[in-house]
């Protein structure tokens, strides 16, 4: 790609950026929490049809996925779950094929009164866009779409097949991305513009979700000593799992990437429900938990460690020793992933990065997970993850930095042109 072509594409990103922000605002305004992603998928499908892409919009059948590597159990109503893929087919085959993927699902907003502005009424101020999903990762998805637009606006068209994929369930199981692979979509590389602060994810954790179902023995609180408090028993188990977290972090000190971090393995009791009455000793308590694992760690082996930890803690508890808790696997059963065997797409992206940012792209050792794992682990497709800067993901007042978003869009556009090749339209 010569300097003139490069500059025309960069200028096109600048000229289309206000339109990109308007589309991003519309996308963020849709409250696409788990089970409610349909309107977002409708919007993405319409945007791709307007651009002339072939659109494949299908309902996900869990039975088709349950035996695939990386599948996580679905517990909620999945009857409306859909994946949407738009395919660009070149007139001339001259480059390498590419998957561009974003997820449209977002985590719950939490108490609305703790947001400075409503989470699904996106606001731009001080060079940032605020709203749930603005950073993670709706701005990246729309950025990828406008990166493709910039190539067209500059007077070029890619010379390789491109699949633009909008998936769900990234925040809880990953089965949206898994469904696209089950459907047969493949490419020479995958690129996912998650918010990475302008760094390339080199290695990322996997995640296990599980639920502790703890029993108690109810009685009037006036005679609490004769009962067994399920909530307090659950806390006893949480303390034991915190010790397991310490053990796993010690183990992480031998990992070639994660040894650079102080505390890469994070255990989180994220949801707790229990009891029926303030003056009754609670008879039940459910705790939904998340813990990380590192690349190369066996999910099955670490599930066994979790079960052993809970069993040992139960044996040391007056009531649980004879009434052991149940463990349910409630979502992610996801391996960690390290980007390897990706010299060619990394070199292409390196040229794009240097043209926009200057210098070489930095690596990121990521203590969260992304959908890249499915492409690399299941099918050997090198999967790059790079995106904009922002903050408060999964928190209040989530935002994306707009200048970083523009730069990310430029880098994506140049990467697509370099990897897929372009010709005059």
Automatic annotation (TrEMBL):
Keywords: Cobalt, Hydrolase, Metal-binding, Zinc. SUPFAM superfamilies: Bacterial exopeptidase dimerisation domain, Zn-dependent exopeptidases. Its cofactor is Zn(2+); Co(2+). Residues 204-316 form the Peptidase M20 dimerisation domain. Belongs to the peptidase M20A family. NCBIfam families: DapE-ArgE, PRK06837.1. This is ArgE/DapE family deacylase.
């Amino acid at each position: 790609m010569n300097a003139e072509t490069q500059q025309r594409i960069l200028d096109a990103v600048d000229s289309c950026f206000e339109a990109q922000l308007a589309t991003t605002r519309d996308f963020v305004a849709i409250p696409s929490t788990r089970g409610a992603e349909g309107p977002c998928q409708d919007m993405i499908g319409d945007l791709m049809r307007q651009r002339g892409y072939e659109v494949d919009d299908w309902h996900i059948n869990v039975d088709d996925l349950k035996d695939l590597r990386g599948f996580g159990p679905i517990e909620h109503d999945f009857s409306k779950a859909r994946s949407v893929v738009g395919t660009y087919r070149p007139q001339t085959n001259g480059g390498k094929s590419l998957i561009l993927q974003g997820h449209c699902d977002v985590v719950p907003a939490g108490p609305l009164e703790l947001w400075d502005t409503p989470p699904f009424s996106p606001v731009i101020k001080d060079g940032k866009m605020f709203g749930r999903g603005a950073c993670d990762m709706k701005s990246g998805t729309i950025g990828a779409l406008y990166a493709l637009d910039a190539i067209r606006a500059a007077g070029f068209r890619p010379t390789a097949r491109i699949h633009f994929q909008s998936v769900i369930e990234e925040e809880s199981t990953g089965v949206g991305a898994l469904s696209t692979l089950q459907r047969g979509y493949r490419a020479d590389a995958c690129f996912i513009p998650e918010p990475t602060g302008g760094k390339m994810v080199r290695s990322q954790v996997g995640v296990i979700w599980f639920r502790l179902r703890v029993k108690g023995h109810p009685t009037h609180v006036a005679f609490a000593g004769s009962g067994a408090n399920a909530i307090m028993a659950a806390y006893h188990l949480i303390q034991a799992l915190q010790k397991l977290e310490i053990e796993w972090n010690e183990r992480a000190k031998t990992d070639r990437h994660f040894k650079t971090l102080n505390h890469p393995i994070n255990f989180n009791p994220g949801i707790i429900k229990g009891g029926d009455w303030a003056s009754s000793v609670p008879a039940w308590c459910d705790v939904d938990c998340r813990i990380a694992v590192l690349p190369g760690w066996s999910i099955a082996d670490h599930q066994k460690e979790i079960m052993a930890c809970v069993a040992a803690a139960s044996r040391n508890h007056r009531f649980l020793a004879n009434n052991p808790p149940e463990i349910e696997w409630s979502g992610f059963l996801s391996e960690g992933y390290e980007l390897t065997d990706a010299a060619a797409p990394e070199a292409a992206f390196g040229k794009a990065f240097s043209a926009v940012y200057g210098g070489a792209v930095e690596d990121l050792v990521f203590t969260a997970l992304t959908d890249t794992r499915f492409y690399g682990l299941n099918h050997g497709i090198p999967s790059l993850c790079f995106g904009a800067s922002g903050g408060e993901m999964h928190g209040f007042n989530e935002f994306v930095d707009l200048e970083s978003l523009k730069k990310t869009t430029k880098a994506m556009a140049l990467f697509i042109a370099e990897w897929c090749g372009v010709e005059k339209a």
